[in-house]
Design brief:
- The chain has 320 residues and is an alpha/beta fold.
- It has three domains: 154 residues, Lambda Exonuclease, Chain A (Alpha-Beta Complex), CATH 3.90.320; 70 residues, no CATH class; 32 residues, no CATH class.
- Helix content is 46%, strand content 16%.
- It has a three-stranded antiparallel sheet.
- A hairpin with a 2-residue loop joins strand 4 and strand 5.
- Helix 2 runs antiparallel to helix 3 and helix 2 crosses helix 9.
- The radius of gyration is 22 Å and the shape is globular.
- The N and C termini lie far apart (48 Å).
């Protein structure tokens, strides 16, 4: 069912929501989504950051990013995402080169007011090439069929509410959930693996299926990430979390849910710890020192200190 921004959802289920409505959190109580989970358990976040960035707690709802000239890469990726999932009805091609003149701004604002994405004509060809690659992928694999695009799952676990917006929700509850991502770089294992654990796609790959199971009563097979390049040759790769990655992400999600519940109940959202942390030199710094001194003393010191090795591995500093 569709929903307006002024309404509040009090019944778990599957909803069709616009981005502004979803991002503003239309649930009857402030709900937990993957962005908040990332703040709660990510290395760069804290409960205080989760509170500050939540639209119902510390941050006014985000108005979106469609009212100005975004970068070409972001524009192409975002519009291709919408065009592939929803078709031409979501965009309006405008015969303008920039949104600087009063006429161009009026055309842009009219499109936005009608819920459409204003797209400069010169960008349309670039978007179409990405979409054509995705359409061929869909025809080859059967992915992104027999379901609905951008469905919002709203569920309740105990007293806590959760929400997620699935790019493609298959009609069959046991089927995979699909997430579509665009990249200006390479859709390679190395590149997307780095993005997955940096931007919280791993917890997304666990939290979204968790919500689907709560709403539909049956666990999906998991989540697949379809990554498409927005530049030639418009390569496409599909990724899935390993069992080990799922195990770790599930532990993080459980910790985030517990922290969210505790903070909501107590009204206390602590920030960073006051304890001093050690700054270990990254591996490349040690290699540079070794090369410059030509003695190997720096690297040997690390090799002879198991505690230092363990700390650097935990911090991810032995990866290059």
């Amino acid at each position: 069912m569709s929903l307006a921004l002024t309404q509040r959802i009090s019944v778990p289920g599957i909803y069709t929501l616009s981005d502004p409505v979803y991002l503003a959190d239309p649930v009857i109580e402030p709900s937990l989504n993957n962005s908040t989970i990332k703040e709660l358990v990510g290395e760069d976040g804290s409960p205080a950051h989760a509170w500050a960035s939540h639209p119902r707690l510390g941050l006014a709802p985000d108005a979106g990013d469609g009212d100005g000239d975004s970068s070409e890469a972001q524009d192409v990726g975002h519009v291709a995402h919408q065009l592939f999932l929803h078709g031409e009805s979501r965009i309006r091609v405008l015969n303008v080169t920039a949104f600087r003149s009063d006429k161009a701004k009026r055309l842009r604002d009219t499109a936005l007011a009608e819920g459409l994405i204003p797209l400069k004509a010169e960008r349309y060809d670039a978007v179409r090439r990405v979409v054509e690659a995705l359409e061929k992928f869909r025809e080859r694999t059967g992915a992104f069929t027999q379901g609905k695009p951008e469905q919002t799952l709203i569920w309740q676990e105990g007293r806590q509410w959760g929400r997620s917006k699935v790019d493609w929700l298959c009609d069959e509850p046991s089927a995979y959930l699909w997430d579509l991502k665009t990249t200006t770089g390479r859709a390679s294992l190395r590149s997307f693996s780095r993005s997955t654990f940096e931007f919280g796609y791993d917890t997304q790959g666990v939290y979204y299926p968790r919500g689907a199971e709560c709403v539909r009563g049956e666990p999906p097979a998991g989540m697949k990430f379809c990554v498409v390049e927005t530049r030639r040759p418009y390569g496409i790769k599909v990724f899935e979390l390993t069992p080990q990655a799922i195990e770790i992400a599930e532990a993080q999600v459980r910790a985030a849910i517990a922290t969210w519940a505790r903070c909501r109940e107590t009204g206390e959202w602590p920030g960073y710890s006051d304890e001093t942390e050690w700054l270990y030199p990254p591996y490349w710094k040690l290699k540079a020192w070794e090369s410059e001194t030509r003695t190997g003393r720096g690297l040997m010191a690390v090799r002879e200190d198991p505690a230092l090795i363990a700390s650097m591995m935990k911090a991810g500093n032995l990866g290059g």
